[in-house]
Structure formats: structure tokens, C-alpha cells
Amino acid sequence: MFQEALKDIVERTDGGIAGLVMDSSGIALDTYTKEGAPFDINTIGIEFSVVIGSIKRAAEMLAWVEAGEYEDIVGADDGERRALARALESDPLQDVVLRAAAAAIGAWASEAGGPTAREAARTARRMMRYGARPLDPAMSRVFRVEVEVERAGADEVRYRVRLLTLGPSGAPTRVTLDLPERAPWTTVPTRLRESFVRENQRALTFELYRALPAGGRK
Length: 218
Description:
218 residues, alpha+beta
């Protein structure tokens, strides 16, 4: 498939001996090796994919820590950890959407003069995961969070975060935050995919947070 292109690249590169095209899982799609090469290019490709995979995992872990999600777990009490474990076991994709929604809320709150985006996103995650009442004045104005999922093609969806907040005058205000990129259909939480199929709707909305009276829990 790619052998002619690989041959051209290897032959025109000073000192070139071999080349390969590899997918993200480390499987070689095509290779080209000069006669008498002192190594197996497939073995080199596998080893290289392990290194790239390790770098990718390290980057994901660093992003997870920098986003404050490590602190989320360390700072949670036993009941909150059990609630998170149940949610992840039930439908892990919903927590993926929740984290993306929290990031969007964090950016919005920060731009509106609230806490930093990181702190606001962390507060939003606690609100949506555990029903925790926010202490920050800016975030305490948010009393409902919903996510709308809209079919954007055969295999893609578009996510929107819809907030119901108290505006500066104290009147209810609706805020819509578009998540920046379309996402694959496979990212949709399981229960929503089932609802799409059952109800044949173009868009569905699910609630992630609703403020309760003081002392209440979600």
C-alpha cells in the first residue's frame, strides 16, 4: 500500500536503511527495507510504539493532575469516592462528557470574573458528580447544568452545555456553551444512545446538576 512511497523516501535519504508506516496501536501497515539491513524494521516499530504509548500515557496523566482531577479523588470523602466508583462502573462515558462540560464551565466562569478556570472546573465536577453546593459566589449562581447531545451526522455528535444561572439582577439567565469540536458517536453515554435509538430524536438533553435547598443532597 505504502511501499513505493517508503522506498522512495528511504532511497533518497542519506544513510536510509528502512522505513515503515505504523498505526497508533503499533501494527505495521507497510514496510520497506534495503537488502542486507542489520535489523528488523518491524521490531524497531514495535519498540518505538511502546515508547510513544508511554509518552502519551504520561501526557494524559500530567493533564489529569494539572486539571485538578487527582485532587478531586484525594479530597473526596468515602461517600463521594463510592458515588464516583458507581458512576464509572455504570456508564464511564457519562463521566467523560461531565469532565468536558466542567472544562467549558470553568472557562466560562473564569471569563465572567470568577475563579481560575482550573478551580471553577474542579468546582463544577464536584457539583455534577456529588451534588456538592459550591462555595464560590460566581459558581453558586449556577443552579442547573444540562448537556444537549445533537446528531451532527451519521457518526458524529455535537455537545452543548446549558446553564441556568442567576444574572447580576437576580433574574434567571440561560447560558449555552458549545463544546469546541464534534465528537464520535461512540462517545455518547450508553443510556443516551439507547434513548436516541428508542425515541428517534435528533437531539436529547440530560441533567447533570440541579441546586437543592441548603442541606439537601442530590
